[in-house]
Amino acid sequence: MFRFTQPALKSVISNSLNSFNLDYMKVYFIGAGPGDPELITVKGKRIIESSGYCIYAGSLVNKDILNYCSDSTKIYDSASMALDEIIKVMEEANDKNVDVARVHTGDPSIYGAIQEQMSELDKREIDYEVVPGVSSFLAAASALKQELTLPGVSQTIIITRIEGRTPVPETEKLEVLSKTKATLCIFLSVKEIKRVAEILKPAYGAECPVAIVYKASWKDEKIINSDLSNIADATIQNGIKKTAMIIVGDVLSRNFEYSKLYDKHFTHAYREKS
Asked: CB neighbours (10 Å) of residue 207?
């Protein structure tokens, strides 16, 4: 008599189902994009449309995204849910063999807190997939009509945040990162804009350009252009306290060299020197 452990039994059943072109459910961690519902990927939209469960990250996700759900989809707002409650919903869907669209803002790999969810799913042997999305720092750059890597100015982008309730490793504090003078895209920190500016001034200089993009790609998007000396006052005057991207760096001055990419005197594999 053969005895199967649960993982082995699940593998046998899975192989049998696959032979009939049937699949187990899957949890999809979907990047909903920065706000504009048209900026979700085609794949992300398709999965939301076909999933029986949708767990979305509260007000961070544009509610219009939920219009992609079917009438029968069970929808949960995770803003007030603890990790164990979220996982319990996923377990329920697993018992019913129904897909879950776990919808996060922007791209789920950046400040999305998905690793702990995936870890819990691993423990339960529930399958999952990550579907990338457009991050808010990219939407902010688009709103500014600004390239973040300019020849002769900066070829490096640093994605970071200021230390708050979530600690930052000593080697990644703004004081340390500022020494690179790279283009900074600072998440989750606009409430501390005064402290951010004071930390960056010694390395970047008081006149270094800064942009605040509030709710990039949303209908109520707002942009503030200033410098490190004045950005704090301008931000406070506009009442911006959250949901905003801070971009710092000389790329915003738009004093740059043209790239070699389209230089007719620069040869590469697809273009000979003219």
From this structure: 11
